[in-house]
From TrEMBL:
PANTHER family, alphabetized: STALLED RIBOSOME SENSOR GCN1, TRANSLATIONAL ACTIVATOR GCN1-RELATED
Gene Ontology cellular component list: cytosol
Sorted UniProt keywords: Repeat
Organism of provenance: Pelagomonas calceolata
Superkingdom assignment: Eukaryota
One Pfam family per UniProt: HEAT_EF3_GNC1
InterPro entries: ARM-like, ARM-type_fold, TOG
Name of this chain's protein: TOG domain-containing protein
Molecular functions (GO terms): protein kinase regulator activity
Length: 330
């Protein structure tokens, strides 16, 4: 009981001291106390609830900054053992990217950057919804903060982000069209970092072109031309498809029949090298309906033939990889 009271007193000190240095010292002392008492003491003293309450104190800078410093100190001291507790307060911390007081916002940036750099790679899928929620807020500072964290996560958990890229690309692309220049810039940088997980040697040289086409639909045709000129010889996996499919989907919906033809040729060439149905599965809904429309609705027989061939190749890739094709596309 004495230890619990001592830890609670240290938390109060960390969130009420006059200066940032004093708050930081108290936070470090609290982290050492928790380490000595055991990780279970975090819940015994109801730390997550205390942190969220402090972060919500709009008129108390010491409480907000102190709560962030406590989280940072605990993560520094306890490492992976503090991760589950960090997730409990993560939404409240992300909100503070937009804090009106710069020292608080900077403390949040330092705390969350350190957390994401050291996080268990297998936690990537758990973290993404928090980052996506932040990227969808009204606050441009929160958007920029979350985009930077996502870019960092791509280096901390490259394999996991590679598998999650089909979810990541559309969310980041939405922010590329934001009205705020800082958000656009952060989104483009973030997508660039996320695309470092693409290791297909055929596509790697044109990744910047594909990123630019995702940011600016007017560049879609030139990106398609680059894809047309790419000879696919290496296996096409999920991360590679994640950056290519949005460009193809946009091209297949284009009114110009020659653009549709180019997309069909790329799909045909690319899908011959898809070895696992799980890789193409996230994109079936985006490609098959559009290819079927080309096959059935385009008035030019030659283009319809391209559509039918591309659809047949995609269906074969799914079946060969052990996947299921919706009956209407058989």
């Amino acid at each position: 009981m004495a230890a619990f009271e001592a830890l609670t007193a240290l938390y109060t000190k960390a969130t009420s001291e006059e200066t940032s240095d004093a708050r930081s010292a108290a936070a470090a002392e609290l982290a050492s106390g928790v380490e000595a008492a055991g990780v279970a003491s975090i819940m015994s003293m109801a730390l997550p609830a205390k942190v969220m309450a402090s972060l919500g104190e709009a008129k108390n800078v010491a409480a907000r900054e102190g709560a962030v410093l406590v989280c940072h100190a605990l993560h520094t001291k306890l490492g992976l053992h503090f991760e589950p507790y960090m997730l409990l307060v993560l939404p409240a911390l992300i909100e503070r990217f937009d804090d009106k007081v710069k020292t608080v916002a900077n403390a949040v940036d330092a705390c969350l950057s350190a957390f994401v750099q050291a996080v268990n790679p297998y936690a990537a899928a758990t973290l993404l919804p928090f980052l996506f929620a932040g990227m969808g807020t009204i606050s441009w500072k929160t958007k920029v903060g979350c985009l930077k964290l996502l870019g960092t996560l791509a280096h901390t958990a490259p394999t996991q982000i590679g598998q999650l890229l089909p979810e990541v690309v559309p969310k980041v692309t939405e922010n590329m069209w934001d009205t705020k220049p800082e958000v656009k810039q952060a989104a483009k940088a973030c997508l660039g970092e996320c695309c470092t997980v693409i290791h297909n040697p055929d596509v790697q040289p044109i990744v910047p072109v594909l990123i630019s086409a995702n940011a600016n639909p007017k560049e879609n045709v030139s990106a398609l031309d680059r894809l047309m000129g790419t000879t696919f010889v290496s296996q096409v996996d999920r991360p590679t498809l994640a950056i290519i499919v949005p460009v193809l989907g946009r091209g297949l919906r284009d009114r110009d029949v020659q653009t549709k033809r180019k997309c069909c040729v790329v799909v045909d060439n690319m899908c011959k090298l898809v070895c696992d149905a799980k890789d193409v599965e996230p994109f079936v809904d985006k490609l098959l309906p559009e290819l079927k429309k080309v096959e059935e609705d385009v008035p030019i027989p030659e283009i319809r033939a391209y559509g039918a061939k591309a659809k047949a190749t995609l269906v074969k890739a799914i079946k060969d990889g052990g996947g299921k094709v919706p009956p209407e596309y058989e």
